[in-house]
Batch of 2 targets.
Target 1
Amino acid sequence: KRIFFFKSIKSTMDYAKKIAERDEPEGTVIIADYQSHGRGRFGRIWKSEPGKNILMSIILRPTIPLEKFSILPFLFSVSVAEAIEKNTNLKITTKWPNDLLINNRKFCGILMEASITADKGDFVILGIGINVNQSEFPKEIQDYATSLYLSTGKVYDRAELTKDILRQIEVDYEKLNKDRDFKSVIERWKKRCTMLGQKITVIQSGKTITGKAIDIDETGFLLLEDETSKIIKLSSGDVTV
Ligand code: BTN
């Protein structure tokens, strides 16, 4: 499998997409030390100090049905969480849909971009941003963001961490392709989630929806119960507890 490394790049997502369009096989990983145009969900900016964190994108050509692709960021979330727990003494929790938190602060985000074409094969780019050794965050997010360093006071070897994360992802991804056990992926994800049973607010395409978080279904949809006991199914959005 190929790994590309860039000292600086616009975004690993774009590069991964470009080479995937030219038939780069599944499993190729693009890693960068710095991104000038790193992006997050909903077109947000993903800022990361040079040389401190893990920024990578992975090319996948999943064999699972298209309508199940939404499971992939959940799978990657548990793989990353497990690999990081093995390397630190931290307790990692999940926040719907695809954030990883330490003490309620986000340190990892996962972004999935799928390219579905009639002629060429479908591919998916999974982007992972992990705050590892960064010690300061911009004012606007400093109450919500953290890093492994800020949580433990230790500086981590990014190469070692990346290796463990990629190994765990590979094991979990191959297993899913074989056994198609979507339920167990969501179960592993839910075990780390502190939000279920709580009253939450979700902002989805400008609309605010409040209710009790009931469950996450097999494809990663959030089931929310509103005041009238109606169950609302959400595919994406931003959650505040
Ligand atoms: C989010 O939480 O909104 C997702 C953040 C994803 C960031 C990663 S960093 C590596 C890859 N390249 C990007 O431009 N974004 C993803």
Target 2
Amino acid sequence: MVGNGWDRVPIDSQSIDAPLSRAAVFLTLTVGEGREALQAVAGVLDGLDDLIKTVGFRDLNGRLSCITALGSGLWDRFQTSKRPQELRPFVPIEGAKHTAPATPGDLFFHIRAEREDLCFEFERLLLDQLGSSVALADEVAGFRYFDSRDLLGFVDGTANPTGHDIGASTLVGSEDPEFAGGSYVVVQKYLHQMQPWAGLSKGEQEQIIGREIVSNVELPDAASGQKSHKTLATIVDDDGTEHDILRDNMPFGRPGHGEYGTYFIGYSRHLWVTQKMLERMFLGDPPGMHDRLLDFSTAHTGAVFFAPAPRTLSALVQAVQT
Ligand code: HEM
């Protein structure tokens, strides 16, 4: 699932380490009741590699990729006795001031490319094939904003793992051998309150995020009291080991509608790591001192999926079709 750098054709499925793209579509669907809908979905997933080639081959420089991930409820419907160890629905978090809600989602597609039209065309054909077996839960088209900035103005994604660390942080390993090579996916759609944010000084904004806005240089962690977003999202276990996730957040928006957002997507080897980040952000550390980013950003969706390795996905969908 993590490429070896020898790929002759730079279009791929289930490649979590696909490079940061200029455009992305985050598509969340629910699957209709009954075996017929399930079988129809399985049939489409079985042919997904071909669909990626059909669209992606039209411009190889466009580097089209798609990751397919399944929610906990859908996994159960596949009636396989084996499940990824940590897979479960999104657990809502109720902080004193802010809430991370859980919203529906059986199937999730993370479509990435250097060109918006490739993402669009792939999504169009995919939805055409899925037809009435699915219903739309959420659809967001994201774009790269200058030097990978979010709409609050900060460079987003800097502390992501790189190189060999990507696989170690994102792919399930020998701890769950049946599902090795797969990855837990957590998504949340945030909308920003731009005016109050713009009312802060540059220094206040930088303290909230934990980095300098222009240079992107990290600020020191607070010794006590209110911690920055960057510090709250850093997870160190009792052994002193830091646990990373891979984020591929993208801005989205419609200025005419006053909509300015960040689509958060985190891939991780262990679901508990992303969960812990969310708890530290929404409940605070120390408790009560929540992430101040949330005073200017509201989570409107929340869902958990598992993106299986290609061979696991194809075994799963073939079993349903027979
Ligand atoms: C760091 C923005 C939500 C996890 C950062 C940084 C920015 C940022 C600007 C600093 C640069 C970087 O390292 O990427 C945002 C925005 C969010 C959001 C705008 C939504 C409104 C989340 C959520 C999580 C998360 C929901 C986890 C559940 C992280 C992590 C880091 C980080 C792990 C790196 C920490 C480190 O320095 O090690 N985020 N973030 N972020 N964020 Fe977020």
